[in-house]
Every structure is written in structure tokens, then in C-alpha cells.
């Protein structure tokens, strides 16, 4: 269980590579990275948004397939090509009117470190680097790309009394 008052959480921000996709990437013949995604993560992301939880993507990657995946799940805040994530995070906070304490962030590597030091609820997958595991309030029992996104979203929705609590849960 995440040791945080999850009723405070209004937004969940995810890194992509190593969190919503596995930590290895296949490359096509043009050098385009090909990622796998977890269906249960996708279900949880679309449901969370239907229930009023803001979901955002904050990634250093910049491929059309990633944008399309999360747009298709209804994500509005997709920040790609983020060289310094804390700068983008500050813009997100200013635009959304949220405070650090209302944000859960899930990252796995050093580019996520500054944001994770700021948010109220820093989380990571089981296979995150040691520096990230050390600053995380919660380390998911799932590796990146294998359901860690679903894990944290489900915990937030359960804590807020929203998990399987409406007809919205039973469809895409």
C-alpha cells in the first residue's frame, strides 16, 4: 500500500520508458523505437480520467506512436521531448492549479529525480534505478511496462472510493 493520504491526489503523472513501457526498446530498421504497453495500465488510465483524476505523460521521448497511444486513452496532458522534466512539471502545475501535494509521479530513472523530490507522492516500478527507489514513498511490486501504472491508479481510486463504484468501470 502507498503510505500517503491518497485522497489528496488529483493528478497522476507518468514517465513512459521504463514505467508505462518496459526498460528495453526494440528499434525498427529506420531507428524508430518500438515499445510494448500494458493493457491493464491502459484500462486504468482511461478509467481514472473518466472518474475525474487528471493523468499526464511526461517523457523525454518524442515519437508519434507514444502520443497516439495516450491520446487514444483520453490523456490531454502529454509532454514529449522533455529535456529537463522539472521545467515542464512547473508549467503543468501552473496551468492546472494543482499543488505538489496533489500529485503522484511515477518515474524510474535519474531524469525523473527532480520532479519526484517535489511531488507529494513519488512512486516507482520495482526495476527503477536505486537512486529513484531511495526517494520513492512506494515501490510497486511490478516492473515498468508490466502493470505498475495500474497498481498506483487502482490504489488511488480505491482510496477515493471510486474503484468499481460506477457503470463507467465496466467499459472502455
> What is the β-strand count?
8
N- and C-termini, Cα separation: 26 Å
Oligomerization: single chain
Radius of gyration: 15 Å
> What low-confidence regions span 5 or more consecutive residues with pLDDT below 50?
none
**Number of contiguous helices:** 6
Helical content, roughly? Answer: 25-40%
**Biggest sheet character:** 6 strands, parallel
Give average pLDDT, whole number.
95
What is the element string, with H for helices and E for strands? Answer: EEEHEHEHEHEHEH
The shape, in one word, is globular
Largest sheet, spatial ordering of strands: 5-4-1-6-7-8
Strand content: 15-25%
Organism: Palleniella muris
Protein name: HAD-IIIA family hydrolase
Keywords: Hydrolase
Verbal overview:
With 172 residues, this protein is α/β, with parallel strands linked by helices. Helices cover 33% and strands 15% of the residues. The protein is built from six helices and eight strands, in the order E-E-E-H-E-H-E-H-E-H-E-H-E-H. It has a six-stranded parallel beta sheet with strand order 5-4-1-6-7-8, sandwiched between helices. Strand 6 (103-106), helix 4 and strand 7 (121-124) form a beta-alpha-beta unit. Helix 1 runs parallel beside helix 6 (148-159). 38% of the residues are buried.
